[in-house]
Design brief:
rRNA-binding, SH3 type barrels, elongated, Translation_prot_SH3-like_sf, six-stranded antiparallel beta sheet, mainly beta, two-stranded antiparallel ribbon, ribonucleoprotein, ribosomal protein, Rib_uL2_dom2
């Protein structure tokens, strides 16, 4: 079970976008793509068969999962994640500082 999942609201802890917040768009191994974070300019050739225009396209690039923390709206900060096992055998993500559940 991953500590960071698609759709989580995270805060960046290192790099040029340190302190910015965004939602996780995708996860691929140990890399995450966060909305409006690590924007790069990609110079692309037009491809008329795919209907793709050419030019300079701005998009999000992946960053390492160790450079993001799950954002806790109660404290207003990024916090570490732990796991708690329930009686029925399911694992639940919890914030380590307060012990409150991340998922409802």
């Amino acid at each position: 079970m991953n500590r960071i999942r698609k759709g989580d609201h995270v805060i960046v802890t290192a790099g040029k976008d340190k302190g910015k917040k965004g939602d996780v768009l995708s996860i691929d191994g140990d890399k995450v793509v966060v909305s409006n974070i690590n924007i790069i300019k990609r110079h692309t050739k037009p491809n008329p068969q795919a209907g793709q225009p050419g030019g300079v396209i701005e998009r999000e690039a992946p960053i390492h999962v160790s450079n993001v923390m799950l954002f806790n709206p109660a404290s207003g900060k990024g916090e570490r994640i732990g796991f708690k096992k329930l009686e029925d055998g399911r694992k639940l993500r919890v914030f380590r500082s307060s012990g409150e559940a991340v998922d409802a």
